[in-house]
Inverse folding.
């Protein structure tokens, strides 16, 4: 059905407003997405703009499948600049010079940016889901 609607939209070259709660449907069909929560607009933009540069935690968690991972922690100065230190002790890089030491933050990381390796976060594997071309691993820190 998504393909047929997208083809119709391209053929008619007209504006179509399509309302859905399915973010995959929105990402694959839309030229522009309006993400709303409780009747308020959270962000407007092209699908990949929302994916790459979400304005807040709600948009970051809503756009993308599987969804973004969130870690709570604080900003700390390091010899190389600023870093994120999770409540569990993991140290991760951050961008931005206006981050103050000790500031509590939520660190978002997309699943495709996480790789398995000998160095990094120590986690317990909860579930392994083979999906064909990819295998999704759900872990707890």
């Amino acid at each position: 059905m998504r393909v047929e609607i997208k083809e119709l939209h391209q053929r008619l070259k007209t504006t179509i407003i399509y309302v859905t709660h399915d973010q995959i449907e929105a990402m694959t069909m839309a030229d522009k997405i309006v993400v709303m929560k409780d009747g308020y607009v959270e962000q407007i933009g092209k699908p990949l703009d929302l994916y790459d540069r979400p304005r807040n935690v709600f948009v970051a968690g809503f756009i993308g499948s599987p969804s973004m991972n969130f870690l709570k922690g604080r900003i700390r100065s390091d010899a190389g600049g600023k870093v994120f230190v999770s409540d569990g002790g993991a140290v991760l890089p951050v961008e931005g010079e206006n981050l103050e030491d000790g500031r509590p933050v939520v660190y978002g990381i997309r699943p495709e940016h996480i790789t398995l390796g000998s160095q990094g976060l120590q986690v317990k594997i909860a579930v392994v889901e083979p999906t064909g071309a990819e295998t999704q691993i759900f872990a707890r820190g």
Notes: The first helix runs from residue 2 to 12. The CA atoms of residues 34 and 44 lie 5 Å apart.
